[in-house]
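User: Before I run my own analysis I want an independent prediction to cross-check against. Here's the chain; please return only the structure tokens and, at the end, one sentence I can use as a sanity check.
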Amino acid sequence: MKKIVIFASGTGSNALKIIEHFKKKSVGKVVLVVSNKKNAAVLDKAQQHNIPTLIINRTSFYKSESFLEVLKEYEADLLVLAGFLWLVPAYLVKAYPQKIVNIHPALLPKFGGKGMYGMNVHRAVYEAKETQTGITIHYVNEQYDEGAIIFQATCALTPEDLPEDISSKIRVLEHGNFPRIIEEIVKNYKLE
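Assistant: Structure tokens:
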């Protein structure tokens, strides 16, 4: 059984869907939820499912490689970013090549990069008058939103769709696809 560590900065709706998904599966399980915000709602969601949580601070995350010891302790096979807003440091990308996965609320390479998350993305899509948008699940490298794409799903937009409507459509795509794609990665790719 592969061990999954989720990183999240906010409410944790995607993290919760992943936790619930793997509670019913024998191929993997969530062993730790990591957040960079001590008041993030994702921490409560993890604790409700008896999953250990860890709050990290910027200095130790970037200036030391001691976080690798924590991941070793939990025997992490796959790291999943589910609304985690910090750039993953190079030492972590090197230690987990093709084993860190992120979800982005747009069709990369459009609307990606530093600062492009959540409503910032949805407003940009709205302002660009896009007729479709979607999600991108990709491997993480040392740049924001530039890792190899694993999966994309699209949805149509109408001229009446406001950023909040776009957000709702994206959430449906995220919740319906992210847990399933993570399961496929766990089953089909070598995570040794």
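Sanity check: The chain has a mean pLDDT of 96.
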